[in-house]
Amino acid sequence: MGIMDGKKGIVFGIANERSYAWYITQSLIQQGAECAYTHLPGAKMERRVRNAVKELGNEDPWLMSCDASSDEDLDAVFTKLGEDWGKIDFVVHSIAFADRQFLEIGNFHTTTREAWTQALDISAYTLIAMSQRAAPLMTDGGSIISMSYYGGEKVIPGYNIMGIAKSALEHTTRYLAAELGEKNIRVNSISGGPLRTLAAMAVGGISEMFDHQANKAPLKRNITGEEVGNTAAFLLSDLSSGVTGEIVYVDAGFNIVGL
Ligand SMILES: NC(=O)c1ccc[n+]([C@@H]2O[C@H](COP(=O)([O-])OP(=O)(O)OC[C@H]3O[C@@H](n4cnc5c(N)ncnc54)[C@H](O)[C@@H]3O)[C@@H](O)[C@H]2O)c1
């Protein structure tokens, strides 16, 4: 018996076996869920996701190409999912992008209009784009989560434009939760601590973030992918049926510390 028994949904954001989305999927599968996946366009990207998902025991996954900045791609994914599964119960939004040229310590003020627009579009707007397509498929209600970071609330040198995108993502979470609640669709975000992933390695000063977190967090360590995965499974399950519009920290307590 798992807390996700009988539930089906889609996971956006597996790049490899180190992705937050991979750990989230691991917990979801362990708890009984059935997952569909997307990959960035291209045979190499497809192969990577296929291999990562195989590690989780899924040899023949529901898998489609999707650049989330394309409305056409998102339409195609949710239309096909509706045709194949009829209804879904959850969506995992675990994607973000910013031009790494603007993720260097000290160069936030050099951010271009183009870099800003692209980062906000892919990292925050896509939560709305996915939710508006998922909602009609969530006929028995549903749960949507995204991944945020403390750099959306406080200045973390090097996080730069991604911090602005996370602020937008977190408040988007609240507005979506307020509107979709009457359909019994819940929307929450996890503010996760730093984890060594492809996306994290693009952020200037990431090593300092790991060291600082391990020194200052109440638990005196960094968090694991499994810890985020398990919290995601809770938020996507009926165990959290009264929770919506929240930003849930999985950061070893780092966010409570002032000094
Ligand atoms: N790793 C960390 O330290 C950390 C901490 C807190 C929050 N997060 C957030 O977790 C989420 C997942 O990142 P991760 O750390 O697992 O890194 P990751 O590189 O493994 O995953 C990022 C994913 O975003 C996807 N993506 C980028 N642009 C896309 C697009 N246009 N369309 C579709 N997908 C696209 C990539 O394909 C990749 O799968 C992100 O929102 C990230 O900001 C990461």
Q: Which descriptors would you attach to this protein?
A:
8 helices; alpha/beta; globular; seven-stranded parallel β-sheet
Structure description:
- This protein is of the alpha/beta class and 259 residues long.
- The chain has eight helices and seven strands.
- Helix 3 (71-85) runs parallel beside helix 4 (113-134).
- It has a single domain, classed as 3-Layer(aba) Sandwich (Rossmann fold).
- Bound molecules: nicotinamide-adenine-dinucleotide.
- Nicotinamide-adenine-dinucleotide is lined by residues 12-15, 19-21, 40, 66-69, 94-97, 122, 147-149, 192, 194-195, 197-200.
- Nicotinamide-adenine-dinucleotide binds next to helix 1, strand 5 and helix 6.
What can be said about this structure in brief?
With 259 residues, this protein is of the alpha/beta class.
